[in-house]
Design goal:
Blueprint (H helix, E strand, L loop, with lengths): L4 H8 L9 E3 L24 E3 L19 E3 L22 E3 L10 H11 L5 E2 L2 E2 L2 H10 L12 H16 L4 H18 L8 H4 L3 H4 L2 H16 L4 H25 L1
Parallel strand pairs: 1-2, 2-3, 3-4, 4-5
Antiparallel strand pairs: 5-6
Length: 259
């Protein structure tokens, strides 16, 4: 799913996209269908602060037109390559970047930080840590300069192929193994949240046609929601509660109509 114009205007309380200065979509449920799409950022010329932490973002290309952007928060996303920094090098006012807990950070914290600072020397704070003059000098030696955008296929095509491949592979797995794996993963997540585990009969009630792909996808989405709940404050949880209540009412109404 993409972050829509209506959602941006509602969150920023603005009348038009060029009036949006700050956008906070941390742990946003609009991004539960990975990979998250932020193409709307191309239409935010005056945006100054963006918070997209804890989502499924993998492509930073839409941000390169946000010339007024000064603060960007991307913690816990799916950014796999530091080559994505290519799109941030054109942002003259960027001073704060939080990129930690992404796959692109790799196993070497020093090399990661040096590479970011070599390509974004105007940063004053990286991953909530102040940037020093000594680090900027060292980055010229230890950092890797990024001169080209990341080589990749279309994000949507790549995701579609990956989904199709996963679905094809899942048909070879025994039904019992799929159920066991899904139940185990979900139960573990719920234990971390101190929640009552879902009874096994809730899983075994799925039809055989659902079991292979739909059941697995359903449980992946459930796990994502449960993990994202950790990042929400009281206001966010109240919104989720209201959405769940409306969804349940819709399902109950549909069941009554079918009866």
């Amino acid at each position: 799913m993409r972050l829509s114009r209506a959602a941006v205007l509602a969150q920023a309380k603005a009348a038009a996209l060029d009036g949006v200065r700050r956008l906070n979509c941390c742990a946003n449920l609009l991004f539960l269908s990975f990979p998250a799409q932020i193409s709307i950022c191309r239409d935010l010329p005056n945006i100054e602060v963006i918070t997209f932490s804890v989502n499924g973002i993998s492509d930073l290309e839409p941000l390169h037109q946000c010339q007024n952007l000064s603060e960007l928060y991307l913690r816990k996303n799916n950014i796999r390559s530091l080559d994505e920094l290519f799109y941030l090098k054109t942002l003259p006012r960027l001073r704060v970047l939080w990129l930690a807990e992404n796959p692109c950070c790799g196993p070497d914290p020093h090399r990661y930080r040096m590479t970011v600072l070599r390509n974004l020397p105007s940063l004053q704070k990286l991953d909530n840590q102040a940037v020093t003059e000594e680090e900027l000098s060292q980055a010229l030696v230890d950092g890797v300069e990024i001169t080209a955008p990341p080589a990749r296929r279309s994000v949507e095509n790549s995701w579609s192929e990956s989904t199709a491949s996963s679905a094809a592979g899942s048909t070879t797995e025994p039904e019992s193994e799929l159920l066991s794996c899904s139940l185990e993963e979900t139960t573990k997540t719920q234990e971390e949240l101190d929640m009552k585990p879902v009874p096994r009969d809730k899983y075994s009630s799925f039809s055989s046609q659902e079991t292979d792909c739909s059941c697995k996808k359903r449980n992946n989405v459930l796990n994502a929601i449960l993990l994202l709940m950790k990042e929400l404050d009281a206001e966010g949880l109240e919104i989720i509660q209201q959405m769940v209540a409306r969804r349940l009412q819709a399902f109950q109404k549909k069941e009554l109509q079918e009866e």
